[in-house]
Known about the structure:
This protein is mainly alpha-helical. The protein contains three helices and no strands. The chain has helices at 6-57, 63-84, 87-107. The longest helix has 52 residues, at 6-57.
Amino acid sequence: MSGRTDSETDAERDADIAEAHEVEDQAEDARRARWTATGTGTLLTLAGLAAALLRCAGSVPALAPAAYALGAAVCALAAVLGFRGHTRRALWLLIAGVMVMAIGDQFD
């Protein structure tokens, strides 16, 4: 006999199960963050490209569609990074891309 009681063995088993659930929860959170960054990056890329195309057809300075296109490119890069699991960098790039598109909106 190992000298352990049944309650000690049960406590260790419960701790192992709790740790396994915590690891699963962290994996689910990471997966959700990846998909959120990827989806948001894709959506903002499409919105930026649509805005750039619409502004090219109008009589606005050339800087406005260029800013929208550049912001869309930054958001596309963020979507790729989000897909690869670099969610923190992807979210910062999403912020930067939207800020560049906002500058294009100021020129509009």
